[in-house]
What does this fold into?
Amino acid sequence: MKSFQIWKFVLNDDVNRLEMPAGAMVLRAELQGDTLCLWAQVEPTMKTETREFHVFYTGAPFHQPDNVLYSYIGTVFYTGGIVVHVYEYLKIGEVRLEEENDIPF
It folds into this structure.
């Protein structure tokens, strides 16, 4: 039987390289108080891997290299009207499928 936990990771407002147990399933990005956080379902006994998440402000330009896929995680609304968008940065060939039948977008 597998045993899972929900872990919280704090994000800054740019590029975030997070150590997570392999196979972690990202659940959502949201504010906790004034802190941007990401929650993931993890199997704590798995070896860790580095995963990269980028935060983009509404209206700010960003570029997607040919060998990269940005996988959308969520949109977060700050008090005062600032809105950011969280994406996982995946190099082509490293696309993570959460379920066997998932199709990457």
